[in-house]
């Protein structure tokens, strides 16, 4: 539901905190591990969870998420099973904002409204579709509005002003600003154009929706950089997967928990 | 009138722009540049001079007398795109788009390739126009089309081997799109078939329509009338749409696309997207796809790498549902028979892709009258496939001998 997202962002705004949004590939390396990772992330202070539903052709993703998605698909993950994962997370964390991130065809193939309805009944609060532009979103937005789900649209550093305004008008829950020219994946540093893009998008959104910045964010220093620019939230994905690949079991949970804590700490800095 | 599509970036319900936001400024820029140059006399003159003086247009329309006698029915004409510079119809599109990219001031060209024909076509156009080219090609295709990899390198292009996903054409497109996202300001993505987000399916169709326009004119010269049927093979569908489009409002002309039936539709090992697929979104377009029950795009199979694609151009999807064109399939075995027959009877070694169309045309001709006319687009020459066909024949001869031995 949109409410869970709005309440969380409202609460953080009052505390002048930046939201930590974490992305997990459903079924990577197993569904059980996905659950463990989400537990560790929530324990570490994560505010919003994005469950990635793997798609065979993830054109907006870099090598890390591609490999994780591919591996999850080989292990037999399906959209149905990913929603079951969401259902178990929802049961455990009744107020946690939970979004599904996937590609258009997963919805289009199943039937947009039908799939979104199923997702809602499993506790999903909204969707992020990196290949769904505002031009093609009529049925998607209508279904979401009927169901009370968020449709998070993306903007990019090169999005022109008039188009940006249309995206701001269409997006609900928050706006997802892609930080860089490129695909997802941990980066060493960001350039000035990202700083300017965050400032620009913040100005365009005003008080309408919060702005979350994602792609490449992998260190507390990055979080501080985005905060200084004015971001309301930071989205972290590949950096978590990279940590998962290094260890397993309790050690992995501890590693992920500590990573989330370090990122959340940077979110709280004045 | 079907000839007026696309409308608002769509062919009926198909097409669209399902793309990451970062690419929209580039897509919009391309759309307005194309609007400007498609009606620009100077641009068209320059392209036309490259097509004639450099690439060898018009290509002949050849009456295949021996093939016609062999089939024993309708007259079969071959549109000889195999004689175009580069050895396939791809050069029509690569010269057009590379020239457009140059006018747009783009400094770097990227492209994907399956069989390697579009990669070679891109490398040719970029060499002559002085543009650097980088080609993405699936690791499996690099392995089975070594000759074309070497040709691209000879022509000065850089070849990137793609290891992701199924390591074939669809993954090469994914990787090219990722490159485009990262280098959107400087880079022109020169897509090789009538697929992708709008305006690509339209641009590629327009540049390939020179095939159909020439067929029309040459038919008037030879026969004083239009053909009864136009047949072309369909992977992404660029040579087919280029052959069909000028006839789209001539509703007496039957348009027939031949897809790769691989080892047969029932085997599940095929690339027959229109015949056996369902609607979905891939590579920026809403079209027919080969996908599983969850909407995951599945691996395709065809003896010809150029037809090995799980999607199809959105205009073909529209022509299928409006029934303006019909789509049939032809198996690997039948395509190889077409390949062998044309080689022996006409002294023309066709690529395996149009061998599908040749094979189907022979079947179709049998059912038609002697004064009926079929035009088949022979979209490329077969040098690249000679080794592959030899291996295929050795394998099937081996299997036959084994069977005979068992029977004894």
Please, could you describe this protein's structure?
The complex is a heterodimer of chains A (270) and B (408). Chain A is an alpha/beta fold. Chain A has a single domain (4-265), classed as Aldolase class I (TIM Barrel, Alpha-Beta Barrel). Chain A is 53% helix and 13% strand. Chain A has 12 helices and 9 strands. Chain A has helices spanning 2-14, 31-43, 63-74, 79-92, 104-110, 112-121, 138-147, 161-170, 192-205, 220-229, 238-246, 249-268; strands at residues 19-25, 48-52, 98-101, 126-128, 150-152, 154-155, 175-178, 211-214, 233-236. In chain A, strand 4, helix 7 and strand 5 form a beta-alpha-beta unit. Chain A is globular and about 45 Å long. The mean pLDDT of chain A is 96. Chain B is α/β, with parallel strands linked by helices and 408 residues long. Chain B contains 16 helices and 14 strands. Chain B has a 6-stranded mixed β-sheet, sandwiched between helices. A 4-stranded parallel β-sheet of chain B has the order 7-6-5-8, with helices on both faces. A two-stranded antiparallel sheet of chain B has the order 1-2. In chain B, helix 5 links the parallel strand 5 (108-113) and strand 6. Chain B is globular, with a radius of gyration of 20 Å. The model of chain B has no long low-confidence stretch (mean pLDDT 96). The interface between A and B is large, with 41 and 37 residues.
């Amino acid at each position: 539901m949109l409410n869970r997202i709005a309440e969380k962002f409202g609460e953080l705004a009052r505390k002048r905190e930046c939201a930590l949004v974490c992305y997990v590939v459903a079924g990577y390396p197993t569904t059980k591990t996905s659950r463990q990772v989400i537990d560790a992330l929530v324990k570490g202070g994560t505010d919003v969870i994005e469950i990635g539903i793997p798609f065979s052709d993830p054109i907006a993703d870099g090598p890390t998420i591609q490999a994780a998605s591919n591996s999850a698909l080989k292990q037999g993950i399906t959209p149905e099973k990913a929603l079951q994962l969401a259902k178990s997370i929802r049961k455990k964390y009744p107020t946690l904002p939970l979004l599904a991130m996937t590609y258009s065809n997963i919805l289009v193939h199943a039937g947009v409204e039908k799939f979104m309805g199923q997702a809602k009944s499993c506790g999903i609060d909204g969707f992020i579709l990196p290949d769904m532009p505002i031009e093609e979103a009529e049925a998607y937005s209508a279904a979401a509005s009927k169901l009370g789900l968020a449709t998070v649209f993306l903007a990019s550093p090169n999005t022109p002003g008039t188009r940006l305004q249309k995206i701001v008008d269409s997006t609900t829950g928050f706006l997802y600003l892609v930080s860089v020219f490129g695909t997802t994946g941990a980066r060493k540093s960001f350039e000035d154009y990202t700083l300017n893009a965050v400032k620009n998008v913040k100005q365009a959104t005003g008080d309408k929706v919060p702005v979350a910045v994602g792609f490449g964010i992998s260190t507390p220093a990055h979080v501080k950089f985005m905060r200084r620019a004015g971001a309301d939230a930071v989205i972290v994905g590949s950096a978590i997967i990279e940590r998962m690949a290094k260890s397993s079991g309790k050690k992995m949970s501890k590693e992920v928990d500590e990573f989330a804590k370090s990122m959340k700490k940077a979110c709280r800095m004045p | 009138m079907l000839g007026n599509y696309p409308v608002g970036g769509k062919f009926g319900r198909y097409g669209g722009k399902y793309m990451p936001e970062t690419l929209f400024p580039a897509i919009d820029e391309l759309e307005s540049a194309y609007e400007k140059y498609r009606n620009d006399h100077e641009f068209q003159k320059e392209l036309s001079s490259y097509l004639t003086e450099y690439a060898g247009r018009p290509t002949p329309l050849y009456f295949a007398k021996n093939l016609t006698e062999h089939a024993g029915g309708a007259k079969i004409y071959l549109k000889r795109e195999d004689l175009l510079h580069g050895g396939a119809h791809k050069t029509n599109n690569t010269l057009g788009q590379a020239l457009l990219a140059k006018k747009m001031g783009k400094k770097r060209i990227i492209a994907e390739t399956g069989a390697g024909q579009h990669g070679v076509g891109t490398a040719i156009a970029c060499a002559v126009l002085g543009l650097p080219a980088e080609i993405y090609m699936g690791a499996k295709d690099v392995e089975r089309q070594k000759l074309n990899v070497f040709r691209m390198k000879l022509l000065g292009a850089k070849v990137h081997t793609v290891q992701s996903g199924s390591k074939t054409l669809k993954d090469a497109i994914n990787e090219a799109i990722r490159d485009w996202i990262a280098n959107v300001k400087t880079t022109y993505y020169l897509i090789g078939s009538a697929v992708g987000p709008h305006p690509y399916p339209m641009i590629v169709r327009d540049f390939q329509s020179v095939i159909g326009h020439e067929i029309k004119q040459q038919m008037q010269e030879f026969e004083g009338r239009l053909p009864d049927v136009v047949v072309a093979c369909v992977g992404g569908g660029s040579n087919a749409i280029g052959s069909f489009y000028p006839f789209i409002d001539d509703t007496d002309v039957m348009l027939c696309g031949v897809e790769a039936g691989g080892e047969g539709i029932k085997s599940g090992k095929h690339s027959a997207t229109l015949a056996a697929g369902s609607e979905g979104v891939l590579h920026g377009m809403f079209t027919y796809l080969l996908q599983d029950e969850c909407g995951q795009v599945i691996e395709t199979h065809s003896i010809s790498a150029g037809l090995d694609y799980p999607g199809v151009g959105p205009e073909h999807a529209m022509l299928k549902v409006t029934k303006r064109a019909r789509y049939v399939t032809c198996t690997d075995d039948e395509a190889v028979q077409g390949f062998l027959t044309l080689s022996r009877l006409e002294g023309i070694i066709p690529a395996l892709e149009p061998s599908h169309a040749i094979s189907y045309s022979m079947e179709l001709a049998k059912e038609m009258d002697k004064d009926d006319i079929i035009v088949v687009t022979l979209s490329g020459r077969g040098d690249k496939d000679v080794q592959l066909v030899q291996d295929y024949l050795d394998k099937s001869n081996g299997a036959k001998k084994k069977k005979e031995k068992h029977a004894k």
